[in-house]
UniProtKB/TrEMBL annotation:
Regions annotated as coiled coil: none
Start and end residues of each Luciferase domain: 138-209
Native source organism of the sequence: Baudoinia panamericana (strain UAMH 10762)
Alphabetical UniProt keywords: Signal
Name of this chain's protein: Luciferase domain-containing protein
A Pfam family this chain is assigned to: Luciferase
Keyword Cell wall biogenesis/degradation: no
Signal peptide: 1-19
Length: 217
């Protein structure tokens, strides 16, 4: 009886661990210890990542960088994981991802530099040279070559616009407070663009993130 109860649990853990590894490289080591860490953090994940978070008092009445965004067509893609967090459906084609990556590269200037992501460790990131808050070395965003999605940090007002227009969702740990040791409160996953027109929308969101991390608030 004990074995009959234990075996399904062990099989579930095994399958869940394989699903974690299938997300690919990210900020968490692809080890069983890394899996256990993410599993523990999952107990604190946001229940509704599509709902904008509370606006901190210091941002009350302060506008963001975005005025509006077109509504993203179709249903939201399926996402999975915490670290790494990845998009499972509606992934970007190789050509569209290359267009996105090139667009991010073009944003580099004396105030923005391209380097290896501090959060992800394996992908390309965009960094503010003089960030308002040196979270992860002033990282503005990083993209995920495996699916075409990205993570970036936004002003609360901009994050709200992105969520309501369907272009992304809050990171599961973007709660603020103690959880800022993992990700900023305004940390958002932006869905992979599906065509060149959507690439331009995503790049406008990246620019808003660069404005915010660089002290635009």
């Amino acid at each position: 009886t004990f074995l009959a109860t234990l075996l399904p649990f062990i099989l579930h853990i095994h399958q869940d661990y394989l699903a974690f590894l299938a997300l690919g490289p990210g900020g968490t080591p692809p080890t069983f210890t890394g899996y256990l860490k993410v599993t523990i953090l999952s107990f604190f994940a946001l229940k509704n990542p599509y709902q904008p978070g509370p606006t901190p008092e210091r941002f009350a009445g302060c506008p963001g960088n975005l005025v509006a965004l077109p509504q993203r067509s179709g249903p939201r893609p399926c996402t999975r994981g915490i670290a790494p967090q990845r998009q499972i459906t509606q992934k970007a084609s190789e050509a569209v991802y290359e267009r996105l990556a090139a667009g991010i590269e073009k944003l580099s200037n004396p105030k923005l530099v391209v380097g290896t992501s501090c959060f992800e460790k394996y992908s390309t990131g965009l960094f503010s040279v003089s960030p308002a808050k040196r979270t992860c070395k002033g990282e503005v965003c990083h993209s995920h070559p495996s699916d075409g999605s990205m993570h970036l940090t936004l002003h609360p007002a901009d994050a709200s616009i992105v969520l309501k227009a369907g272009w992304g969702e809050r990171h599961p740990l973007a709660r603020g407070g103690w959880f800022e040791q993992f990700v900023p409160a305004g940390f958002v996953m932006i869905y992979a663009p599906r065509d060149e027109k959507e690439v331009e929308v995503v790049l406008s969101i990246v620019k808003a993130a660069a404005w915010f991390v660089g002290g635009g608030d």
